[in-house]
């Protein structure tokens, strides 16, 4: 957190937003606009919204009783693992606050005890189901057989088309999509497009030489089989 904004300062801002009747998505968006990189994560905003809704008044940390926990405490390690099982995008700061140890201790648990690394998502065009993958495999195999029979001329006769939403913004940053995973595990995936505040549908057709048509569908138009007739 930047020196000009303490945790209590940010929580006070969230409490003010809550009292204004704002919901977590709006609170998070406004905090990003005002605080920039110092803004809390969306999970933190939702957590404090829930606490205020349950009647919490204080923005201070809860008092902790008993002996302070250390990073080598198996109870702490287990708690961190449980929190990550619930949401692998939690930051060290969030885990430290929930568990009650320092940020450095959490980082030690993650990297040295649990042997995890923070891995960023890999962009893919779509997140496909098993059935969709099979359909694409069947179609590709059919095209490959025709190519072997008909040669290069077959490629010039293919016209493909698709519809896609073009969004004005993607609210999730690369850092926000990163997850704590085992060191040798593959990177997680997410679809490139994520719904933003404004969007417009484009219909595109193309062949082996390039784009044949790029059409922006008027707002409010239903795109179905009749639309293409």
TrEMBL record:
InterPro entries: Mos1_HTH (IPR041426), RNaseH_sf (IPR036397), Transposase-MT_Hybrid (IPR052709), Transposase_1 (IPR001888). Pfam families: HTH_48 (PF17906), Transposase_1 (PF01359). GO terms for molecular function: nucleic acid binding. Residues 7-55 form the Mos1 transposase HTH domain. This is Mos1 transposase HTH domain-containing protein.
